[in-house]
Design a protein that fits this description.
Elements lengths: L4 H14 L4 H13 L11 E10 L5 E5 L6 E2 L2 E3 L7 H13 L6 E3 L6 E7 L10 E12 L2 H4 L8 E4 L6 H16 L2
Parallel strand pairs: 1-7
Antiparallel strand pairs: 1-4, 2-3, 2-8, 5-7, 6-7
Helix pairs in contact: 1-2
């Protein structure tokens, strides 16, 4: 069963409740989901939802993967599949496919995204895609042991970085959570 627009609206409203200062960011997403086609479909423009996984180790290192096409490092993530039943499940599935994460070795940080960001994607005429916006829903996952959660086969295309190396507001949130976690006895 696909993630419905109502499901996305529920997640967005939960995120706004937890992060009221970010309401303006999600206003357009909610309106589009209320009035448009499937907001998780890759073909939906002017915007659609994508998911990412922020996987952190006990020492608060963050997992990144190398994009084979662009040779850039980023959090594992991508487009929501038609058979994904939740955004949380989509993020976990993308982490498994893109980084080789053993899904039974991670613990979700919650059912609401840790961060949401709107990223403008340039037009890709060769793919027939106009410029559009990705609403990146980033879910936080904890692992107990890096070596057990990500097998050696994926080691050449993953790395573990300090939360402060993650760009933007997400990096700030991860750094803040890292400091808070280290203060807890």
């Amino acid at each position: 069963m696909a993630v419905t627009n109502n499901g996305v609206i529920g997640v967005a409203l939960g995120y706004i409740e937890a992060n009221p200062d970010e309401m303006e960011l999600l206003r357009s997403l909610v309106v589009l989901a209320l009035h448009g086609p499937s907001i998780t479909a890759r073909s939906t423009t002017p915007a659609h939802v994508t998911c990412r996984a922020a996987i952190v180790s006990p020492d608060w290192r963050v997992l990144e993967v190398m994009d084979g096409t662009t040779s850039r490092w980023h959090l594992p993530g991508g487009h929501v599949d038609a058979d994904d039943s939740s955004l949380l499940g989509a993020a976990l599935g993308l982490a498994a496919r893109r980084a080789g994460v053993e899904t039974n070795m991670v613990i979700p940080g919650g059912i609401i995204p840790f961060d949401v960001d709107a990223t403008v994607i340039e037009a890709a005429p060769l793919l027939g895609e106009p410029a559009h916006v990705h609403y990146d829903m980033t879910y936080l996952f904890h692992i107990e042991d890096r070596s057990l959660a990500v097998p050696d086969a994926a080691a050449n295309r993953i790395r573990w970085i300090d939360p402060g190396q993650v760009d933007g507001r997400l990096g700030t949130k991860l750094s803040r959570a890292s400091r808070a976690a280290r203060l807890v006895p």
